[in-house]
Amino acid sequence: MISSMRISNSMFLRQTVVKRWQSAKIPLETNGTATAKVAAEAVGKSGGTTVASVPKPSGGLMNIAKDHPFAFQLGVATAKTAAADLLVQVVAEKKSFNEIDWKRNGIFVVFGFAYLGGFQYYLMVNKYRQWFPTMDRFAKLSFADKLKDTAGIMDAAKMVLFDLVVHLPIMYFPSYYMVKEVVGGETWNPADWARDGVTKYIHNAKDDLTAMVKLWGPSDCIQFVLPIHIRLPFRHVVSFFWTAYVSFTRGAIEESPEESTASVQES
User: Fold this and answer.
1) How far apart are CA 242 and CA 253, in angstroms?
2) pLDDT digits (tens, 9 = 90+) for 157-197
3) Could you say which DSSP state residue 31 is in?
4) Interacting residues of 159 by C-beta distance below 8 A, sequence separation 6+
5) pLDDT of res. 14
6) Which phi and psi (to 5°) does residue 66 adopt?
7) CA atoms of 77 and 164, how far apart (whole Å)
8) CA-CA distances (angstroms) from residue 201 to 23, 172, 219, 248?
9) Dmax of the chain from CA atoms?
């Protein structure tokens, strides 16, 4: 009887070990080393039949952002940009659903997807990684260790300056105004898109750049010390409010300064 029970327990334990191998995809070893190791993990102190639980990967947003950083932030950028414009039209401008300017909203959808989600990731992850070699190492440090890393702090400061001096005024704003001309303009000539877009940007540059520095200066100081996979999602959250500002002040399809002056003279 006792011998039979021992054989039964041995068979049960062996089946448990095999199941653990199959679920964890552990290669079988003929010398019994893996058997002993897995069996030791499977057997509890109480006598031998409690199987240790196998942790399952979490499906939280942070894990999605970490595992699929480009796709995650691309979706966030597109949805956020469109939502911010709709919020401004409905709440700030008091439009009903039937009065929403979908052509104007299309400007933000296209710009959010192509520039904020696509080009900005290429710039701030791929190219920054080449230009600022301490970026990855610095991003993984604790805040206390970051304060001791002089080279990392210098590279983070360079990222802030590049964003404020080169990226936003020279790349972001001209691109936005040109996309606005592509979607809302009356011509299909790329030269006209560039000319009209840059003309409107120059006309609005003082106000645009002042607002840019006030928001993105402090925001960049936070963004460029965060872990890599959180940086662009954080930027998109801040950008929701920036997009609302741009939508409210620059979202409408307006005439170029020359066209506006000509129409006034003709009247």
Assistant:
1) 18
2) 999 999 999 999 999 999 999 988 888 777 888 899 999 99
3) T
4) 124, 128, 132, 135, 220, 224
5) 59
6) -75, -40
7) 20
8) 59, 11, 23, 16
9) 110
What is the Cα–Cα distance from 134 to 220, expressed in whole angstroms? 17
- CA dist 109 and 103 (Å) reads 10
* Statement: residue 132 has pLDDT above 80: yes
User: What is the rounded distance in angstroms from the CA atom of residue 109 to the CA atom of residue 128?
Assistant: 25
The answer to whether 223 and 235 have CB atoms below 8 angstroms apart is: yes
Instruction: Give the Cα separation of 80 and 240 in Å (integer).
Output: 6
pLDDT digits (tens, 9 = 90+) for 74-130: 999 999 999 999 999 999 889 998 999 998 899 899 999 999 999 999 999 999 999
What pTM was estimated for this model as a whole? Answer: 0.67
34: nearest Cα among 44, 24, 48, 45: 24
What is the CB neighbour count within 10 angstroms for residue 72? 20
Dist CA 253 CA 108 (whole Å): 12
In angstroms, the CA 231 to CA 235 distance is: 6
* DSSP helix/strand/coil, 240: helix
